[in-house]
# Entry
Amino acid sequence: MNLHAKLLKRQAEGRPVRVGLIGAGKFGSMYLAQIPRTPGVHLAGIADLSPGAARANLARVGWSAERTLAASLDEALQNGSTHVGDDWRVLAQHPAIDVIVECTGHPIAAVDHCLEAFAQGKHVVNVTVEADAFCGPLLARKAAEAGVVYSLAFGDQPALICDLVDWARTCGFPVVAAGRGHKWLPHFCESTPETVWGHYGLTPEQAARGGLNPKMFNSFLDGSKPSIESTAVSNATGLDVPSDGLLYPPASIEDIPFVTRPRSEGGVLEHKGMVEVISSLEADGRRIPYDIRMGVWVTVEGETEYVRNCFEEYNAHTDPSGRYFTLYKRWHLIGLEVGVSVASVALRGEPTGVATGWNADVVATAKRDLAPGELLDGEGGYTVWGKLLPARRSVEIGGLPLGLAHNVKVVRPVKKGQSLTWGDVAMDTSTHAYRTRRAMEDLFAPQRKVA
# Structure
């Protein structure tokens, strides 16, 4: 509870936490908006493929041009300004940088950035959860071997869910289920960047004003991002995932403790101890009042009569049996909250969520019939969406991880709704991302749970 005090101390000592940001898009811009208001932190450098776009985003969030006039990273470190350039290696390899915030949203590049940062003795806050979803357990192991901290990003829903799970377990509550909300109807899995805004609930004008990327936001809508984030939570907490994809049960906040019970007790879960996503829409498309669409939640169990009586005495809203209680945050503030992770890894040496095993995976699944010769365009695109599966099942079918389904050629026909396998595509096997994923399968698959 004292991260702010620790930051104030670093500021008073003239020893700010020195941060390098890779990627200054929407998420990165939200973090940039908060840095001038955060003591004890110096954003020494920004690396972006388009420095001009990065500077435009800095102006958008209120930074003065004078703050980014440093000609080099060394100059920025000396005078407290911020260097903006296009070479991420300058940040990852400079000995004065303490923390790298990986914020590109490009999973294959993110693996390169993480591995190099580890090699250079840098902590990493990985906003690109797509990379964590397909090789997070091995990234976490490599960070530990390098003596640094690898962390999910606070403000993004996986880290917030991990925080709730940690709260529950620290209090002695068994976790029955945990997850996030989402606006979901089954046909959304077919959505493309051309249809996203109508389904999402924004006008094209609102999207343009916010600088929102239709492909990225379509990955939220079409189920890919919920699957990716649920995978990260499962791998970090050990909670299981549904055997054949997320169920998206519709529920108001009031009904979450009723819905997130085992099927044997009237809920939707296969068993206790699972990840799930709650829909803010009824099956017929009606909006549910007081929804959890933008929030996170955890359902815990009152195992004893005494605890259940305490739930009742303190007006905790439970299911009808009084046994299951849900704690929630109705909102998450994305990049505006990343500073919690930066402070935690730098000042406490603790991640705000990190993979501890390989329980879950996200497999690329065809949005339409795919023909040989077509190129897959990754999450949020026109060709595939991500389906959440237990890791053991993904290994059994040879599932193609969604995070590696970028600019990959299809080599044989794939039917709509079919999960792709390694054999369906021609992979570039030379990337760090591919090799890291395959190495993770070799290391972690033998430890998978037996059904």
